[in-house]
Design goal:
Elements: H1 7-15, H2 27-30, E1 31-32, E2 35-36, H3 47-59
Antiparallel strand pairs: 1-2
């Protein structure tokens, strides 16, 4: 994905990297065959490891405040 806006999008991008592939970069840099170059880690990582990875990455994102007119 080119932009992650919610925790759910981040989680989906980690669990299923082929769900939404960014078009901002050349295809040969992002895709391999019919999916993402990022391999599915579900068979090599435990659920706890996937949760820890998601929590760590989520903590690195800058949270932006929505403008008042959006509310």
């Amino acid at each position: 994905m080119s932009r992650i806006e919610t925790y759910g999008q981040l989680l989906t991008s980690i669990i299923n990297p082929s769900h939404d592939i960014s078009r901002r970069f050349p295809r040969e840099h992002t895709e391999e065959g019919d999916g993402s170059r990022m391999h599915d880690a579900n068979d090599t990582m435990t659920v706890a490891q996937l949760i820890d990875l998601t929590a760590y990455l989520h903590s690195k994102y800058e949270r932006r405040r929505y403008p008042d007119y959006v509310r």
